[in-house]
Write a structure and sequence with these properties.
Elements: E1 16-21, H1 26-35, E2 39-45, H2 48-57, E3 62-65, H3 71-81, E4 85-88, H4 95-100, H5 102-122, E5 127-133, H6 142-156, E6 163-169, E7 171-172, H7 179-188, E8 194-195, E9 201-205, H8 207-223, E10 229-232, E11 236-238, H9 239-250, E12 257-258, E13 270-272, E14 280-282, E15 288-291, E16 299-300, E17 305-306, H10 315-321
Helix pairs in contact: 1-8, 3-5, 5-6, 7-9
Length: 325
Amino acid sequence: MNTENPEIEPGKTGKRRCLITGGSGTVGVSFMKEYEHEFEFYNVSRNESYISELAQQCPNTKSYVADIRDADRLVNLFLKVRPEVVIHAAALKHVNHAELNPSKTVEVNIQGSLNVIKACIRAEVPVAVAISTDKACQPENIYGYSKKITEQIFMEHYNEQTKFACARFANVAGSNGSVIPFWIKSASNGEELKLTDARMNRLMFTTKDASELIRQTVAYAEQSSEAFVLSRIMKSVNMRELANVISRKFGNGTEPLIVGKRPGEKLNETLVSQAELGNAYVTDDGKYIALYTDKFGKERLTQELSSLTADYMNEEEICELFGTP
């Protein structure tokens, strides 16, 4: 079912065709806005409310309603669009929801990813990038395990016709359902901010940084002769400090209420583990980390990158996460 902009036909704009699964989410919308000059975008997602919002923000994007668990539907859409780049962003993304719904998480995050892979191969897509997460590194929860498997199956299917790669994210500031917009809203309403543990730290980056990581992964995949996972060197934020900054900027400056960890939640998260250091290379520009290939930089990462070992953000950098000076 084509829901938006039926007048746009694949390949008519002169730009490369880019299909994004889950493209109506925060990261997909950010990527479309950032690179609309370069790509002709096609969104495949199942949330009609988000699709309607996407039509307002990115009116040139053509959207199809589909669930990545529906393999036949995906193949038909991929053959119709014939994308030159696929970005696989659709997933169940929240740790606590995944812990309570492991079967559904497997269906969407693992079987859905396999369906995307098979559709890419059928449609002879040149480059396909899966969005992964720091929770896939040394996973300890259902969501993390599902994303670790996604990384592995994408790399397993790498071939000369379809170059599969992964972009490993940390926490994207301001994404749908994430803590920053929730806390800002709570603070603005005069409510007490709730924090699971004062010792908790998280690696965070902006939607613009996330978009750049995806674009760089696509560029490297086009150059590469082997599968890889690309991540980015980034800083950490202490969640209690984040809550305090938001409370001072948007609320009454009170300390957050500590409520205890949620199922599957960790105090710290690792982006590149000690075990991966033998296969982790800093790119020549010093900005990214490539796992399983030294094609883009020969210098090995010397220390694991985690929310505990990374440099901490100062208040100015924290404010940049939510666009407040």
